[in-house]
Amino acid sequence: MNKSLKKLDGERLLLGLAAPVLAVVTALVVTALVLLASGKDPFQAFSEMLDYGSKADSQVYILNKATTYYLAGLAVALGFRMNLFNIGVDGQYRMAAFFAAVVGAQLHLPGVLHVLVIVLVAMLVGAMWAGIAGALKVTRGVSEVISTIMLNAIATYLISYLLNPSRLANLDSSGNVATPLIPDSGHFFSFATKGGPLWGFLLVAVVAGVAFWWGLSRTRFGFDLRTAGGSDSAALASGVNVRRMVVTAMLISGAMAGLVGMPELLNNSYQYSLNFPAGVGFTGISVALLGRNNPIGVAVGALLWAFIERATGHLEMAGYDKEIAGVIQGVIVLAVVVAYELVRRYGLRRQQSRVGRELAAQAVQTQNQEVPA
Amino acid sequence: MPPTRTVRVLPRVHPGRMPQPLQECAITAPSARKGEPPAGAGTEPAAVELRGITKRFPGVVANHDIDITVRRGTVHALVGENGAGKSTLMKILYGMQRPDEGTITLDGERADLHTPADAIARGIGMVHQHFMLADNLTVLENVVLGAEKLHGISGRARARIMEISDAYGLGVRPDVLVEHLGVADRQRVEILKVLYRGARTLILDEPTAVLVPQEVDALFDNLRGLKSEGLTVIFISHKLDEVLSVADAITVIRRGTTVASVDPREVNSRQLAELMVGSELPSPETRESTVTDVPMLTVDGLRLSEVDPDGVDRVVLDGIGFTIHKGEVLGIAGVEGNGQAELVEAIMGMRRPDAGTVTLDGADLSHALTRARREAGIGYIPEDRHRHALLLEAPLWENRILGHVTEEPNSRRGVLNPGAARRDTERIVAEYDVRTPGIDVTASSLSGGNQQKLIVGREMSHRPRLLIAAHPTRGVDVGAQAQIWDHIREARREGLAVLLISADLDELIGLSDTLRVMYRGRLVADADPATVTPEELGSAMTGAARGHLESPAGESGTAEPAAGPGEAPASDGPASGEAATTGQDGTTGQDGTTEQAEK
């Protein structure tokens, strides 16, 4: 019996891998067809992507980008784990990064402390912005999908109102509007590599991933959160305070979102400007989907996403249509969602039939033992 | 007292190779019997003939080698435990599922049913266990819905409905809104719906599950009416007394196959049950009393009102008060929907009552959160295990943690201990005989009975001081039922207090030390399980009797003949009737609080 159980687990692992692989393969096939239709050789394109994407500077770029995407993916995944669709990671990280940049530029503290304060401000702002949606949900029954989308829009306008030379920003020589630069003490360290600086915030992302895993699978709080995600009614009956859990999960998801802007802010730009990357929150949704809300899966998803961006950016210069990146990413997400559901149902059915078979075999055995008696 | 086995009890046979003699006596014997209703035996083809029906599902007890012959103009009962495969079989006959093997013959003609529409066209109609009626439409509209082409939607349809209703004595009023109808009336509407579509053979899936005894009798009168008009009724049930009283022929299904066909005049319910189960029957009897005079749970003056979907403020619980002592099982009888579920959820802290106190062993829990109440020692077996007691897609060992995440061995100081939880799950699986290949399979792959055994094991593992068991053996096969009863009894001997809610009156009477009846959110009657009969309980459940139910005197012993709620100015429909109920708080308080332990 033990052997069959191990088999069951191995199979689960296999099924878990099957979905993303299936999705990526589907995406490649579709992309190949699109490339063919546009009169280009898909294999040529793929090999160029692979070549360019594996260069040293590309590797550093991909890791740096993936750090950001990973944090965004975790923020979204945490909500997903309890059935909360935090579409608002986008607004949350931009608000967080903006205010962190403003506060960080005003402070003069010793290095570690300075960075810590900036990061804490970011997490706090992100949490508060997400907390609004959580509070609305438990007090007024507003769907978090709607409220976070609205909050994204509000964040956009609030930031563009405040990011103005007459308010919290300056107009620099190149005509860019930006918050004042954060002094050196507030910069995060980088690793110098031959492909350029590798952002040190990568380590924070790794720690966040481990914390995510441990918090969800090894603590009471994580169990409660997953319970609430699995079944509202069972959570209620088992003693989870579902309302409080909604608010808490939103706050944590928002705090996590607050980290999303930090690699860029503390490792690269040191200010919040009009050029500050936007839309990362939505990338986070794709990455979380791709990674199945699992910290390792999300990491793979983030790396894949960054790779596709980097590699297709190069394709554009090589004369291919720049929309290819969008096609690949779109098809992957679509295929992932379909593939996961298919694989999930298949796995469930397989397991049910296996349990049924094993029990039937046991029953026949006992029956046979009874007959002679 | 061992039953005397006078009637042939068929030997257990290996499915698949049914010996010929058995086939002989089992299947053909009843149809050769003479003297049955008008149709008469012999040449006329059977209304329904199923031969060698086999259906396989992933992981579920499949139907195999089903053979049934249903003669026209009879009530044919199909009995078997939960999960024996009755419903699947009927779904096959109704075209909802296709058999993998076997043939269906209707009136002598081979039938190939792909959809319910095929079945309806062939004159087969089904009355589902859960009614499929639109509350906000009238009876007429509900009947016509989807069958507008038959007789239009107004005058002709109404005439046809009245014609059917009169012909079979259904007494249906076409213009009443369905939401104003009681359960029994709704069921008659369902039957009428099926007849309206031209059914000659009716399948009734557990039609009595939702009815009180008096309503059951009325239903049976209706069925006899249908039969006398030449219609055929296939009646699925596991309540054997009912089957014996109404059926002309009985087919027993066990583990997915037909094991016997018997004549109801030749068997008693005990023998029938043994055919059904294939072994000696368990019984819920528990006569040696373990009741102490130490109160464990005291509920006082509980009141809960709720805004229903129509925006009307309804009182769901009113003046509820009772005490359960250590070692006592308090049973609550009542037709479903009279506030039992709300009572349980209020005690569990899942709903906030407007007033009242809940005290467990001297500690006031009235405002405690659900988790605190669980930690204080309340075990909970919910009515709907899929919704409230399981994470269906999580493995068994995680389900073992559910509801007790803060307790040993599941966690310590906020950190889970999966190893200990898994070991303890193994123990529960072994001790409570949960049939599973392992603890890593998801809860959804277990059968209902095994899920329930896991839940009972989990709740008992934390040494509860109070166990709330809502329909603990619903949808559970007889074997598991006996085990669950045993566990409750054993824990009760060790001083557990139990609040038992059940729709199964035998279970209630058999397990309880004290009985209360709930009607429209109030405890309206109490009874001694040693003397009370299911009929007396039944009449209290419909609101016809109240006070203390005295056995020999029957209803005459009731304190006051329902002067209050039922007949209160009913002109404005049920909502205002409810309000009138709550107006008379004096009587309520009395009902709720005067009695304490009868010991």
Structure characterization notes:
- The complex is a heterodimer of chains A (373) and B (599).
- Chain A is mainly α and 373 residues long.
- Helix content of chain A is 76%, strand content 3%.
- In chain A, a hairpin with a 5-residue loop joins strand 1 and strand 2.
- In chain A, helix 3 runs antiparallel to helix 10, helix 4 crosses helix 10 and helix 7 packs across helix 8.
- Chain A is globular, with a radius of gyration of 24 Å.
- Chain B is of the alpha/beta class and 599 residues long.
- Chain B folds into 4 domains: 193 residues, P-loop containing nucleotide triphosphate hydrolases (Rossmann fold); 70 residues, no CATH class; 233 residues, P-loop containing nucleotide triphosphate hydrolases (Rossmann fold, 3-Layer(aba) Sandwich); 77 residues, no CATH class.
- Chain B starts with 19 loop residues before the first helix and ends in a 6-residue tail after the last helix.
- In chain B, helix 15 crosses helix 16 and helix 16 runs parallel beside helix 17.
- The N terminus and C terminus of chain B are likely disordered.
- Chain B is built from 21 helices and 23 strands.
- Chains A and B meet through helix 1, helix 8, helix 9 and helix 14 of A and helix 12 and strand 18 of B.
